[in-house]
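Anyone? Bumping this.
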Amino acid sequence: MLQAIALTKQFGRHTALHALDLTVQKGEIFCLLGPNGAGKTTTVNCFLGFITPTSGRALVNGIDVAQQLSQARQHIAYIPETVMLYAHMTGLENLVFFDSLTGNHHTREHYTTLLISAGLQENAINRRVKTYSKGMRQKVGIAIATAKHAQVLLLDEPTSGLDPHASNEFSDLLRRFSEEGRAVLMATHDLYRAREVASRIGIMKNGRLITEMEADTVDHYTLENIYMEHMRTV
Amino acid sequence: MYLLLTTKEWLGGLRTYALPAVLLSLLLLLGIAFAGTHSRSAQVKKNRLAANAHFRQQWEQLKTGDPHSAAHFGTYIFKPVMLLSNFDSGLEPVTGTSMRIEAHVQHSMAAPALRPVDIYTRFGGLTIASILQLFFPLFIIFGCYDSYTQEKTSGTLGLLLIQGASQNIILKSKARYYLTAVNIILLISLLIYMPALLFSGTSSTDNTTLISILCLTVAYSIYCSIFVLLAIVVSAIAKNGRQSLLILTGCWLVWNILIPRLGAGIAAELHPLPSQYQQQEKIEKAIKMGINGHSPKEERQQQLIDATLKQYHVERTDQLPINLNAILLQASEDYAQMVYDIYNAKTDSIISIQNRYNNYLALADPYLAIRHLSMALCGTGYIQQQQLDNAARQYRNDFIRRLNNELAYGGSKTDDSHWKVNAAFYQSIPPFHYQTPALSQVLKSQWVMIASLLLWLIISICLLQIIAQYAGIE
């Protein structure tokens, strides 16, 4: 589903990604952990086609993102750290607009259900987004990603700004995606959430994937220790 | 997808009140300009009608019976008030629209004032044209500078791309929206103020005026579209809105302020015009001493007296059947006119070189192009001024010649101070009539300006096409 082959990205003299090799299979939730500047977002952006790798390949469903960008993007749904929407439109209008771009056309009721499932209060659905909190925008972003029915989900700190209840609901949603056979790659700082939802966990540092583990082989405490240990070493 | 993206833009424009705000601001500015120009032109028209009637009546009821005295009395002629001069007053505030006709005196139109080329490029008064040429592009810049950078910096661009919209489609949708919105605002403004101009009663409307208005609308639409497309292109390549705004306002400054002044300055520096005083001094000397400097006025007069005596086979002037004084006066007029024509030709050639600089610059500056084209289409441009000069000079010469010839051959004798003409003679001299150049002639004279606007439109479209392929999110 998702494959990085010797993926390298340089910004001038700084190497953000060092020949990253990574695979996320169907139904798998892969959480990338690491400090700021570790290369998590760069990895996600390479798969999204927002940045062009200096060398190596990023494949989505076997499609090389650099070669066939629009085809690759058809298989991707994306939730950024801060979902930015059009402030002059309502939450529902934003969802209808962004989903219509993919060619989907559903009823108003369908979209309303999606927004409620994502955790947005019913009375906020028809309010302009300029009145939304960050968490509410995030929920619309989740609804947009859900509506696309993409086989690959790329998430960059998606629970940032979500309240604990919404975060738990989001974890449930990810599990559902996994059960549906979708591949999920999530960059996050949230060790707890990663341990809760991930199938596999990778820790990145200085643009390298320094360790990788099955999530069910570690508990929260062990994961935290491993993480801290890696952060201490140069 | 185009429809979706364009609808989203329209929704933004209307819900944020950006479009109504721009429209209302523009209408307000145009309203102020219209009120000012309309009240001024209504006053001018009223004054001109009264002055025309007054001077004509004065002329037809002249007390003097001596045609040469009448030539000294002279009269005034006026450039007709052009209907569209309310839209674009062009050169009129600088060159004026009235002139005095008088014997021996070459008025400013007969001998055009030495006008430096920068009179065409300085800021004029607040007219509808100046607002559309100078301020509307600023509105466009402020409205469009953030069109793409906002999507980039706010993060919506990423979501748009992931949901299937390509950069190409996003940019072209924005171009469609902004082009449509700007042209609708322009059309609404023109639809409100053009009929107001047409029915304001300053002059009659004909088909040529309507076609001129159509040409003006197309020209301004192209001019504004150039700014829209360039603003979107800059917004697509700029890192953020601030950078985009800086680049665009820089372009506006260079095009609308710097190049017109710099170009005029360079032209005037490289091909300077002589001063009015120097020119007049040379002309007077040439009239007195002859164009070659070796045939003084007295000698020329003596030659003419001898030739006339010989022609009529008489020995003394009092034996002539005609009035020799009038013949001498007309000969003096003809010689002076010849001298003026020679010096004017030199001046005109310098002005024409300076104008050529402006033409070349207009290829690099759509503001210069629309400015020249607009004033030409409104009947207040250089071509109309030149034709008015020629018509006025022609009228003046015919006017004086007719009076002198009446005195010379109408029955009076040399030194006969009792001979008189009646009022019917004065009435037989037609009033000044000025025929404006045909629209085709005007458009032909403005081909460089039309080419410049089309060239910049094509450049903008091509730039948008290129940028649409390469504009990224990095």
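Late reply, but here is one note on the structure posted above: Chain B touches chain A at residues 1, 4-5, 8, 11-12, 15-16, 154-156, 158-166, 472-474 (CB under 8 Å).
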